[in-house]
User: Fold this.
Amino acid sequence: MSTERIVTAETHTSDLPDSIGAPRPRRLDEFVGQTQLCERLGIALKAASGRSDPMEHLLLHGPPGLGKTTVAHIVAEEMNSHAYVTSGPALTKGADLVGTLTRMQPGDVLFIDEIHRLPAAVEEYIYPAMEDFKIDFTLDGGMHARVVTYQLKPFTLIGATTRAGLLTAALRSRFGIAHRLDFYSQDDLDTILERAATRMGIQLDSGEARSLIAARSRGTPRICLRLLRRVRDFAEVRGEGTITTELAGEALLLEGVDDGGLDPLDRSYMRVLAETYEGGPAGLEAIAATLGEDSGTLEDLVEPFLLQAGLLARTRQGRQLTASGRERAGCKPSSGPLFDH
Ligand SMILES: Nc1ncnc2c1ncn2[C@@H]1O[C@H](COP(=O)(O)OP(=O)(O)O)[C@@H](O)[C@H]1O
Ligand SMILES: [Mg+2]
Assistant:
């Protein structure tokens, strides 16, 4: 059946590609940071299981790599149920979901990643599924077409998106809980690294090497785990296997991340704003055009971190580098840009 390819049932959370080496946290108490989210989920889960109801539909938004998929699996695990995973672009028509929806047991989780890319037809199809746990089938065609309503078992829909702004108000309002994930603090990333290193059997000779990695991870668990693996490889090949502060520093240099954790796209964005627009204010569309990037990509992937790092400000006139952003970007062309080209 076609839905088999579109929707996969994930029972083993550790199978997911992101978790190569370091298994994803499986329970809520293993999930580091995001204290407000954990508290909200803890309450929702407890209340739901007390009433033997499924948990309310949950919408997670925020930049990639912060733990949206992980949370969806944690909810399923905490509910002792299965997570069925699909994504907005994989669903082209309502019927794609029929197989999964009718197979789901009470309390199961349907996880739709990139839910902002759900086609309008599918979106309308899932409204009654979300609200009343029912869907309409059309049997036969033409003159003899009949619509049959099918009652579903109560389930939890979890939607994840990097672009909450693109969701229709109608869809957004059908989620009982909506939460925005924040970038992680250095301490949280440090804890994530410490646990991952233990689970992966990686030796770090000091907390300093760990903080070095955490500081360059752009507040993002996925990046810190990736850097940990790169640093481990480097230490195995160039050193004795143990990650020393020195080896970590060299490995990170090779990876091209600067000490603020900015990646090449962040740096190009700041360079354009600094050099072409003299630090701003400049409109997002103008910056995007100069960079040859999609403005949505910049808004979702680049700006949130620069804003939170205090390098960028959004003013009514447009995007503007802050004092520290200017300093970082070497704003005046005469003083020479600090960025490598
Ligand atoms: N709070 C957290 N604690 C520990 N590991 C985390 C946490 N959040 C994310 N991770 C890890 O980071 C990686 C990316 O998380 P993921 O859930 O795939 O992010 P997203 O779906 O938001 O892009 C995964 O390997 C996951 O295990
Ligand atoms: Mg994800």
Residues 1-5, 8-19, 333-341 have pLDDT under 50 and may be disordered. The first strand starts at residue 8 and ends at 10. The beta strands are 8-10, 58-61, 83-87, 109-113, 134-139, 146-151, 156-161, 177-180, 312-315, 318-321.
